[in-house]
Amino acid sequence: MTRAGLRPVSRQTRAYFAPVDRVNGVTAVFDPSKNSGFPLDAPPAPWIDLGWIENFQRTSTSQIEGLGAGSAGAVMAQVRRGLGTRVEFEFRDWGKLQMALAGGAEHMNVLATDANAAPEGSGGAAVSAIPVLEGSTAEELILGVGATVGFQTGDLVACDMDYLQQVGYVGTGTAGAYVKNPADVRQDAHYVRRVTFNVGRVAQVTATSLVLAQALAGGAPVAGASVQKVIAFVDREGGTFLQHWSGLFVMEEESGGRVCFYYPILSPTTVKPEWQRESLVPIQKPIGEMALQAAFTALPTVDGNDGAVVLCYRSYFPAGGAGVY
Amino acid sequence: MQAAKDSFFMALRDRLMALNPARTVNLDGVSVPGILVRENMEARCNEALAGVFYVDFGELLIAESSRPMLGMDCRVWYASEGTVGGSGVDRGRVLAEMDEELMRICTPAHTQMLDYSESPARDLGAGVFWTAPELGNAPGDEAVAKQQRGASGARLARYAQLRVYFFLPEVDV
Q1: Considering only CB atoms, which chain B residues are within 8 Å of A4?
Q2: Residue A43 has pLDDT above 50, yes or no
Q3: Which distant-in-sequence residues (6+ apart) come within 8 Å of B134 by Cβ?
Q4: A95 to chain B nearest CA, in Å?
Q5: Which residues of A touch B165 (CB under 8 A)?
């Protein structure tokens, strides 16, 4: 046994997020006993790989305070209060989920519109959706003969249910928004597809189907789902919805074992009165890389093993052959 | 220390075999992956071949003091003469392929440190990790200057530098 393996060495951190079931309050679980040493390019379901992140910082605001007693006021006991923790970092990869997490509110898919649609900041009235047929999967959307004509390889598409005037969370598999009143969304039948996380890029157009380059995050389309072309993604300063996702951060092990940080529920937060939404990381002046700033506060869950209220878990997978302490 | 050198080399060699099995070199009639540690070669093998990665280890420095961590300079030399009928017109492309291969086999920039003096190799409980290679022209290489004078069939050479880090695998238990 050597002690050299007791010093974790890492240079970069990888971020993975998974949806939280907002209706039932069920989070994704990173179980260290089941997911030890997973390849960083192939995370276990339901974790979605969001790439390497930079400037990863974990800050605890929990306090341990002493309870004094007696004339000397000596500390006789201690209590933990103000349980709280934050996570801050920069996304360097941009994508639908990265934008949604950094933005924090509803994240909009800009649906294709017809030429006469009135302009809107998040996209005007959308063209009709194409129903998805039975037998479709998360990777292949079956539309039927003649229905794929309007699509091309490389298109972005959103696939989800029509909005049925319901009140509550909308979006299959992952809540994309909360509708308080159908009038707020103009009873728009396409509203769910405006906010759904079930988006993909078309890798191939066949006579009857669209083959996607990546599986839909919410899995196979539900009965009654339709597909629409997406032109861009938009987030906004404003909105009332707060994204809730489970987060997993892995410090790539170079020596001394792997360290993982698992947060059952992360919710967007602010860290100071004024802060940058994105930054330009210099490559060589004047060239820079756009980085998305993200900050979250952790919400509590209960560990079923002992009933403890916890915000996050730090797991350590010791290097093979290293000492234990 | 030898374990760190061996582990680094074996990682790059295994990755090269997986990435480009065709990059081989013939040593005394035996085909081996086209990456060699020069200090392990017989002294008579003194002519460097194009299309082969040559690894040289250099200076050592103490990178961290409370638990000795060593940084070891490493250089990887390689050259291209092109492949098209000896004319050398694709020597730049071939060198670019080797550049990319080197970057790929250096990623991820870490591996387990194993003691290859035993069989099977023994896990020493720590890792070997390194910086990204900086690709430069080989010192003294005249290829660029020659090309500026005319379209000659010069050999293009590259001299990649990186630093390999590792903890001294002292036994405490």
Answers
A1: 67, 124-126, 167-170
A2: yes
A3: B160, B161, B162
A4: 24
A5: 9
Residue B166, chain A, CB below 8 Å: the answer is yes
* Secondary structure of B47-77 as H, E, C letters: CCCCCCEEEEEEEEEEEECCCCEEEEEEEEE
Strand-pairing partners, residue B114, are B123
Of B108, B125, B129, the CB nearest to A9: B129
pLDDT band at B145 (very low <50, low <70, confident <90, very high): low
Angle (CA) B142-B145-B148 rounded to 5° is 145
Q: Is the ipTM of this complex over 0.85?
A: no
Percentage of chain A modeled with pLDDT above 70: 99
Q: Domain spanning B2-167 has what CATH number?
A: 3.30.2000
* Per-window interface: B 124-143 vs A, CB < 8 A: 124-129
Residue B54 to residue A37: CA distance in whole angstroms: 33
User: Using a CB-CB distance cutoff of 8 angstroms, which residues of chain A are in contact with residue B167?
Assistant: 2, 4-5, 7, 255
| Paired strand residues for A250 | A14, A260
Which pLDDT score is estimated for A1? 62
User: Does the pLDDT value for residue A128 go beyond 70?
Assistant: yes
The 10s digit of each residue's pLDDT in A238-279 is 999 999 999 999 999 999 899 999 999 999 999 889 988 999
